[in-house]
Request: fold
Amino acid sequence: MAKNSRINGFAQTLLEWFGTYGRELPWRETHDPYAIWLSEIILQQTQVKQGWDYWQRFMRRWPTVEDLAAASEDEVLREWQGLGYYSRARNLHSAARQIVALGHFPDTLEEIKQLKGVGDYTAAAIGSIAFGLPAAVVDGNVYRVLARYYGIETPINSTEGKKLFGALAKEVMADAPGGLYNQAIMDFGAIQCTPQSPRCIVCPLQESCDALRTGKVSLLPIKEKKLKIKERHLIYIYIRCQGKTAIHRRGEGDIWQGLWEPFLMEDGKATGRRVSGNGWMMEDGLRCVAKGVKHVLTHQVLTADFYLWETETKPELPEDYIWIKEEDIDNYGIPRLVDKLLRLL
Reply:
């Protein structure tokens, strides 16, 4: 573990850097825990540049947690469309209702962690920024900055690494204002000590950075490789019948839970069940709109083909499909891939 003098100097340098170069973000201009919580949920898997617009959109439409709790899940999913990782939107909606039921925004780490979709990092960020709680955040930016500065080669996604970095993060923050320090180290990792091409030449920590001294900046942090990529082939058929189309809501246990999509075939099956009399797909009126459209997710690579079928008779579909007016499809939350394919029509 690092010596106290080096730790104190590290934290102080970050705070001074942050005072000059920290990002001006709208959720930093308020102490409203709702606004801060909303920003943290949006930014869990999203870059600040993209998340900023969504945060503003949510705040305009639902300026208070009571407003968000009163919305329907479909409305929230529709507003979230394009951000991906849709479980965040469902958790956000559930947590809003938890907060309203509680009667106030939780202001202890233990209570904040009880909110749906809030883990240790998010709870620490909300608690320290909104309520000044002494909780250190540990995310990708923090892992990278600490690993490089202190020359730590323990894999960040190992059990040992998580304990080590968690303890170091607390130790470094001990004598600094928690909320300010957490924002400082996150910004430092996002702007200065970046994953690729970090700005080491103008870094205020260059004289004491272990990775820079040993030439290991590009090697740290170390992460164990565990990710297995799954490939899937999807066939969407947009059915157009007398001004209406058929869609269904995706179920639990797979990507895009709760979102809507046109008729789907995957590996010869229609959303997990064969359609009786599949021969209808070979009838006249079936037209290929696009083939081989790729969509990359964290753990999966999807390749989609898209067909349009215009018919005057409604085909027999699985029972979970509903018929809606074509112009009403914008009222339903749909995955980015489906939105991309529909635009081709």
Q: What stands out?
A: The longest strand covers residues 230-240. The chain has a mean pLDDT of 91. The radius of gyration is 24 Å.
